[in-house]
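[User]
Um, tokens okay?
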Amino acid sequence: MSVKDSDVIDGIGIEKETNTLVLLAVDPFDWKVQEHEHLRSIQKKMNTYVSYIEKKMYSERYPDRGFDGFRIELVFKYRYTNDGERFLASGKKQLRNRGITLVYSVREKV
């Protein structure tokens, strides 16, 4: 699974210390190839995750459980471009306004 599979949650878990629902998205693709398409894939994936949170679809997996926070984590294999970084920073701000934290990082072994 990856950002190309926009309708799939790549990973899900709970950070017990903060009672935060964490949704993980994995991006193993190089930014230098089709950057525009890459950004669109990430946008679709994030929209799926936001919808999952806002529609409380997690209650199917975690019935009778409330959460104190929500976080989307994007893990990239390759360093994002300047446009990619601007896109992610904008997304982080927009999600914060919806009560969702966005965290992104680069890990060569994805």
